[in-house]
Design brief:
Elements: H1 2-19, E1 26-36, E2 47-52, E3 60-64, E4 70-77, E5 83-89, E6 103-108, E7 119-129
Parallel strand pairs: 1-7
Antiparallel strand pairs: 1-4, 2-3, 2-5, 5-6
Length: 138
């Protein structure tokens, strides 16, 4: 009799526990940066694309620099990653006498050792100087 009642209580608990999904680890990688010209002035309207490396899937985040030349790109993954590629291009949103050259920069995050925390966030600060695409005809 006791077994019958304990089974009636235990069965719903076990059923509930089997339906609960285990939460995955997430790793959020952030680059907060600014884009300046060779004169040190902010460059607005530059497209910044953060590319994930080490994968066959194309995962990216895109941002545009504001009037102060600042940008913020974020990527949240379920696996660790240390190296990303940042692609800078001038899409022509802002009128300029000369467009800026497309530039790619590698960013590397420090070694990550914490295996306990479920949701980890890593932030890098970066500044890049873009050059114009000036052609010289001889």
């Amino acid at each position: 009799m006791f077994f019958k009642y304990s089974l009636l209580i235990l069965a719903p608990v076990l059923l509930f526990l089997s339906c609960v999904e285990k939460e995955e680890h997430t790793f959020t990688y952030v680059v907060e940066g600014s884009v300046v010209s060779v004169l040190g002035k902010p460059v607005p309207g530059i497209q910044v694309v953060m590319h994930r490396s080490y994968t066959k899937w194309q995962e990216t985040d895109t941002a545009y620099t504001d009037n102060l030349g600042k940008y913020n790109v974020i990527m949240t993954l379920t696996s660790r990653q240390r190296i990303f590629a940042l692609e800078f291009s001038d899409p022509g949103i802002v009128e300029r006498p000369l467009p800026y050259k497309d530039t790619i920069k590698k960013v590397t995050y420090p070694e990550q050792r914490d295996d306990i925390t479920l949701h980890q966030r890593f932030v890098l600060q970066d500044t890049i100087t873009l050059h114009t695409d000036i052609q010289v005809d001889l």
